[in-house]
Amino acid sequence: MPKHIPLSILDLAPVSVGQSGAEAIRASLELARVADDAGYQRIWFAQHHLSPGVASAQPAVLAALAAERTSRIRVGSGAVLLGSTTPLVGAEQFGTIAAAHPGRVDLGVGRAFNPSTDGVPRERVPGDSEPATRVLDGLVVPKPSRFDLSNPVLKRRLLAHREVVGSREGGDFRAELEQILALRDGTYAFDGLAFTSPPVDAAAFDLWVLASTGGESARVAGELGLPLAANYHVAPGNVLDTVATYRAAFRPGVLAEPYVVVSADVLVAETGDRARELGEPFADWVRSIRSGVDGAIAFPAPGTTTPYAQWSDEDRELVADRVDTRFVGSPDEVVARLEALVRVTGADELLITTEVHAPADRERSFTLLAEAWNDRAPVLSAPEAGARVEAGALLIDVRSAGGRASAGEIPGARATDRVLLESLVDATGVALVPLDTPVIVVCGSVNGSGPVARELRRRGFTDVAHVDGGFPAWAEAGLPTVAPQVVSAE
């Protein structure tokens, strides 16, 4: 059986056009309740200040309020930024929450963006080349994107933002994490003096590190044996380096083995067309973050923005990495792409964030995703599926009759109606083969085989998988196919 991969949520308390900040916060707290019911592992709240489109400025307060409204889900920060909050204050905030909700609290920390030093493109060296966008086992890994501070108005705004929010010269990142751990262990000392913080001492929270690059954050998280959250949704071009750096640096510490959560920007609706319609304003929203002087705009309503296809090449280049790596579609479309993210990164857990105009559509997206993810059957590569069939698994071809005739039959496959599944289950719902029979489902794509594989699982079949890439991948792998016999009418 495949390893269980939990789903969690990263919430920004997004503010939509026509919505107040208070309404956005209440919607996020309601989302926490929905997520608790849907089985999500945890919900983390981000820390963003002075952005018109984001109301999650105080993750500790939101986490405490969410914990009071839920019974099971873990709550936490994604992340407390040590550029504006001291390690002690962050630990005291979440230690206090953990006193009321022990074992349900995560303190995620991260280094804050510094407009004076971060994001400036490095000097090129002779022969150096920018990595190109790649597609690895179905996952888009774009070339890394760097924050461009050549706009003096933008840089001035960012520097002023730091002054208004309040900034601190953070110390060595490893030392700051060790301070939190020492305060929790009751061993913290400074300048030869012992200090104790009662809210932090023996507090029942987990410490996490969030990282967007394969730099200091990922390395130190590994060295201290802490769990890591890697940002695919913010910096998709860096995710493989981030995870690789963490794993290479990992030493047993807080954890005995590495544990990686990978984030993803997701939007699910009942149909792919509906999801793409709802998701159209996302490109404008990302552009406001990367080019606007005011930060994220309030999320626009569908149909009120210029279609992405009509943008200039320059504007598309600014946001393409995030638009191209957003997971938008029907439940089966999104599940298939998230499984690729797990395969390529080796993620132990996925952290889902969703921005859309209507709170009801956001809740529906998370609910649909959870249902499809929990019911999903594993997706195997065509060679893996072929090997299982050769070893005795039952192969079920759920392409339409027209699809089978045009693309070729598969020897040994049963021609199965997608709805009735008549070769496995009779008209009364009784299984025609033992429920532990290994079953491989193939269709034109995972969008066709995914629902069938899920339905079989719902009917009690315990060993069901389907083919990544469907019949075209099956044929490309050189697995047995044969064109149907053409019978002359004469």
TrEMBL record:
Gene Ontology CC: one annotated term: cytosol
Q: Tell me, what is one Gene Ontology molecular-function annotation carried by this entry?
A: monooxygenase activity
Q: Which InterPro entries match?
A: Bact_Lucif_Oxidored (IPR050766), Luciferase-like_dom (IPR011251), Luciferase-like_sf (IPR036661), Rhodanese-like_dom (IPR001763), Rhodanese-like_dom_sf (IPR036873)
The answer to keyword Oxidoreductase applying to this record is yes
Q: Which residues form a coiled coil?
A: none
Every copy of the Rhodanese domain together lies at 389-483
Q: Does the keyword Acetylation apply?
A: no
PROSITE patterns the UniProt entry points to = RHODANESE_3
Keywords attached to this Swiss-Prot or TrEMBL record, sorted alphabetically, are: Monooxygenase, Oxidoreductase
Read off the SUPFAM superfamilies from this record.
Bacterial luciferase-like (SSF51679), Rhodanese/Cell cycle control phosphatase (SSF52821)
Instruction: Tell me what this protein is called.
Output: Monooxygenase (Luciferase-like)
Record lineage: Bacteria, Bacillati, Actinomycetota, Actinomycetes, Micrococcales
